[in-house]
């Protein structure tokens, strides 16, 4: 299968490739070159209504399949994705810009969710609870919630869809997916492979659009949508919560992050540097869990900054298919402008760039990997999600200071710290206010682990055995009249 054979330009509704009802299209461009990759069906509210109707019709037949049947179809899906992982990675790199090796890793990571939840489909166990009456029995059943709407971001256009669609299908729920405007091609390719795997018509529907709010409003307010799963900004998450409140929808919200990355003076500094590079510069810093604020204890601050700068200087910036590239472009001009504003604000408030601090000569959407030292504690770069390859490094005094700084945020998605003191490891892991903690590790994502945040970073968990629960409802059944 070639690149062109996984490039789809139409919406996918009820198992068919269809044009938008309006006939409109929108352009998907390669952020590294600015070239148009394809013109895609531009769905509107009517298309979204059709997709929800198709999902509703598919719900009962899909839910009524045995768990083993759903498992086998999903396993087929996983096998097809893995067979064509390189074509999917090339497509992802072209529409999103991340280096091919990183894109290939994302495809395999996304596929792992399909495999995991294929297996979990057969483990949706209920309970028999000791009864309060001798002639009665209490049963607790788990049943699929119903039609799911998923709204996904551009930074992981394959994995974020797999992470939502896989548990939905495993639970017995059909899904309507609105991919990000910048990166709809990966979603459409996954739908193509799901159809080849035997996923029935209407169980997966994809509605690409350039009018996210119009389609999003349909999906988040529709009476026939039982659950909404969203990954994106906290501001949009608030809108989805308000919309979902009208019909009391079940919600999963994976929202903004402002991850602290703490290095204590008893840490292995070289390991901490490696962790910082891996966490901060993956996908050019365009991840919700990447290190956003680096706090380093005063006694090792200069040594850390020096070693960190030396390592970052080795990172190569360029197009997705260039040799040894680690950092690709940012997604669009708006993203570049925000990074420039945050860096400018930090420099005005006394910070200095040990490396980078400017755009790259590779193109208008490229930005040099940047380290800012001596950053003022009131700089915007410490309060706002950067979503770019910029690492602000701040000095702290002691453990209490580090914890206070780490928790001084409305967000609580991910946090990282490095220490070889076992007592400190326990204290800090328990004290950091976030849903994910990496201890002496800069990358934490794994299908076996629950992914999600607290505070204004969201609701619910994705992945792991806990991730299926968000797509299931509990039903209590009291069976009486059983006296002998």
Describe what this molecule looks like in 3D.
The active site is at residue 254. Residues 17-477 form the Aldehyde dehydrogenase domain. The chain is an alpha/beta fold. Helices cover 37% and strands 20% of the residues. It has helices at residues 45-63, 67-83, 85-96, 100-120, 159-171, 185-197, 212-221, 234-245, 269-281, 301-312, 333-348, 399-407, 422-431; strands spanning 11-13, 16-18, 25-29, 36-41, 127-129, 137-144, 148-151, 175-178, 204-206, 227-231, 250-254, 259-263, 291-297, 352-355, 370-373, 390-396, 411-412, 414-418, 436-439, 454-455, 458-459, 472-479. A seven-stranded mixed sheet has the order 14-15-16-13-12-18-19, sandwiched between helices. A hairpin with a 7-residue loop joins strand 5 (127-129) and strand 6 (137-144). Helix 3 (85-96) packs across helix 4 (100-120) and helix 7 crosses helix 8. The longest helix is centred in the N-terminal third of the chain and has 21 residues, at 100-120. It is globular.
What top-tier CATH class of the largest domain fits best? Alpha Beta
Distance between the termini: 65 Å
- Biggest sheet, strands in spatial order? 14-15-16-13-12-18-19
Radius of gyration using CA atoms only: 23 Å
Residues in helix, %: 25-40%
CATH second-level architecture of the largest domain: 3-Layer(aba) Sandwich
CATH superfamily of the largest domain: Aldehyde Dehydrogenase, Chain A, domain 1
Average pLDDT, rounded to a whole number, is: 97
* Low-pLDDT residue intervals, each spanning 5 or more residues: none
Largest sheet: 7 strands, mixed
- Shape, per Cα inertia axes: globular
By DSSP, the count of extended strands is: 22
Into how many domains do the coordinates divide?
2
The secondary-structure class comes to: alpha/beta
The count of helical stretches stands at: 13
- Briefly note the CATH topology name of the largest domain: Aldehyde Dehydrogenase, Chain A, domain 1
Note the beta-strand portion. 15-25%
Organism: Maritalea myrionectae
Keywords: Oxidoreductase
Active site: 254
Pfam families: Aldedh
């Amino acid at each position: 299968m070639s690149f062109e054979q996984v490039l789809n330009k139409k919406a996918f509704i009820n198992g068919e490739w269809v044009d938008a009802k309006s006939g409109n299209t929108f352009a998907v461009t390669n952020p590294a070159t600015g070239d148009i990759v394809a013109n895609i069906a531009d769905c509107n509210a009517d298309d979204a209504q059709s997709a929800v109707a198709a999902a509703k019709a598919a719900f009962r037949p899909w839910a009524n399949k045995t768990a083993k049947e759903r498992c086998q179809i999903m396993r087929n899906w996983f096998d097809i994705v893995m067979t064509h992982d390189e074509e999917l990675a090339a497509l992802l790199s072209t529409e999103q810009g991340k280096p091919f090796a990183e894109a290939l890793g994302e495809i395999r990571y996304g596929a792992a969710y399909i495999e995991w939840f294929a297996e979990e489909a057969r483990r949706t166990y209920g309970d028999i609870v000791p009864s309060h009456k001798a002639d009665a029995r209490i049963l607790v059943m788990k049943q699929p919630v119903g039609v799911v709407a998923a709204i996904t971001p551009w930074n992981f256009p394959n994995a974020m869809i797999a992470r939502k669609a896989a548990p939905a299908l495993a639970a017995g729920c059909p899904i309507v997916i609105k991919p990000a405007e910048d990166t709809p091609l990966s979603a459409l390719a996954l739908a193509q492979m799901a159809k080849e795997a035997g996923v029935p018509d209407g169980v997966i529907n994809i509605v690409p659009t350039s009018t996210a709010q119009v389609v999003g409003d349909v999906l988040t307010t529709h009476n026939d949508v039982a659950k909404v799963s969203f990954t994106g900004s906290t501001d949009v998450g608030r809108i989805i919560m308000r919309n979902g409140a009208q019909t009391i929808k079940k919600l999963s919200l994976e929202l903004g992050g402002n991850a602290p990355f703490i290095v204590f003076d008893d840490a292995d500094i070289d390991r901490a540097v490696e962790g910082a590079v891996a966490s901060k510069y993956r996908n050019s810093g365009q991840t919700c869990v990447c290190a956003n604020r680096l706090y380093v204890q005063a006694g090792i601050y200069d040594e850390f900054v020096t070693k960190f700068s030396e390592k970052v200087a080795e990172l190569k910036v360029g197009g997705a298919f260039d040799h040894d590239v680690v950092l690709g472009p940012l997604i669009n001009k708006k993203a570049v402008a925000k990074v420039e504003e945050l860096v400018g604000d930090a420099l005005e408030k006394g910070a200095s760039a040990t490396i980078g601090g400017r755009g790259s000569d590779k193109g208008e959407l490229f930005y040099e990997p940047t380290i800012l030292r001596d950053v003022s504690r009131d700089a915007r770069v410490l309060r706002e999600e950067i979503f770019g390859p910029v690492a602000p490094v701040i000095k702290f005094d002691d453990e209490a200071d580090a914890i206070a700084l780490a928790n001084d945020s409305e967000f609580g998605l991910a946090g990282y710290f490095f220490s070889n003191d076992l007592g400190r490891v326990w204290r800090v892991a328990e004290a950091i206010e976030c849903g994910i903690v990496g201890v002496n590790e800069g990358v934490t994502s794994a299908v076996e682990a629950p992914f999600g945040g607290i505070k204004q970073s969201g609701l619910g968990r994705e992945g792991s055995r806990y991730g299926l629960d968000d797509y299931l409802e509990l039903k209590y059944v009291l069976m009486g009249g059983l006296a002998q």
